[in-house]
Amino acid sequence: MSDAHNEHQSLIKTPKQLVAVVIAAFVVPIICIVLLVQYVANTEKAGAGSDSQSPESIAARLAPVADQGFTFKDASAPKQLQAGDAVYKMVCAACHDSGAAGAPKTGDAGAWTARLAQGQATLVEHAIKGIRAMPAKGGNPDLDDIEVERAVVFMANQSGGKLKEPAAKAPAQAEGAPAASEAGAQTASATAPVASSPTQQQKAVADAGKSDAKVDGKKVYDTACAACHATGVAGAPKVGDKENWAPRIKQGNATLYEHAIKGFQGKAGMMPPKGGSAASDDEVKAAVDYMVSASK
Fold it and tell me: Where is the composition biased (Low complexity) (predicted)?
């Protein structure tokens, strides 16, 4: 019995031992917390005590953000030509991904076989100048011919073709730039007053009269718009279809002008900017006026 009794006796036998245990129960955790905080506080941090806030570090972090299209670009610098896949995604995919308006779908080797047989030169010519429902340069007249050819090569090679990537053009001398031997003569003549001849004055008056002349909307329509709006291809409202034009006319001329000039992606089809033509804004507006008048 005495042995069993001794096994269950507490280790704390005096009040002093009890006080010591209570104090230790508070002090030991506090010491552990203090040591842990010191360990964390002594690790290397990006902030005070580092160069993370120096002008160089801040500029390095901001540089990728500041260069997303907001930096100044020299307009006189040579144009940076886009790759074929980039042009395709931006301009061509709207029709060639879905096959809209009879466009051969990219990747459909069967649809491209007959076209590839025409040869690279013919395919590129059709893409640049337009053919049937295909507007010139896909409706983006700002594209360089090489960019269009790159897009054609990309689509064709994705569809079973083996076309060659076009070589970039060498930078040409600016049109009308004077030769070195002529520079002195031109400099001397530039200092002398130039009198406008009667022929030049008459030409200027004639040009001013042309600019003031009313634009023939029907003529612009026949040239740039009829390919789609005469047949209703690619979801274009046919001229004369009053029911189809009624909701569009309700939007007002300002909206119609904007869609025709800048382009518009609708539910049923896509309107390329200016119908893919090089017409001026006034000519496009005149064509819109003609179509609206003929569809009321």
Answer: 168-200
Q: Give the pLDDT confidence of 9-44 residue by residue, as tens digits.
A: 667 778 888 888 889 888 999 999 999 988 887 765
The enclosing H or E element of 265 equals: strand 264-265
Cα separation, 212 vs 157, whole angstroms: 49
Helix (H) or strand (E) holding 52: none
Burial (CB < 10 A; 0-12, 13-18, 19+), residue 263, is middle
**Do 266 and 234 meet the contact criterion of CB atoms below 8 Å apart?**
no
Q: Provide the H-helix boundaries in 42-177.
A: 55-66, 84-87, 93-96, 109-117, 120-129, 145-158
Give the integer Cα–Cα distance in Å for 116 and 112: 6
Q: Cα separation of 183 and 201, whole Å?
A: 27
Q: What domains sit in the chain, N to C, each tagged with a CATH number?
A: 84-158 (1.10.760.10), 217-294 (1.10.760.10)
Give residue-wise pLDDT tens across range 129-175. 888 778 888 878 888 888 889 989 999 898 888 888 888 766 555 44
**What is the per-residue pLDDT for 30?**
93
Mean pLDDT score across all residues of the chain: 75
Which two tokens mark 82? 């886009």
d(CA 250, CA 163): 47
Q: Is the pLDDT of residue 98 over 60?
A: yes
- pTM of structure: 0.42
For 91-125, give one letter per residue: b (16+ CB within 10 A) or e.
Answer: bbbbbbeeebbebbbbeeeebbeebbeeebeebbb
CA angle 265, 267, 271 (to 5 degrees): 30
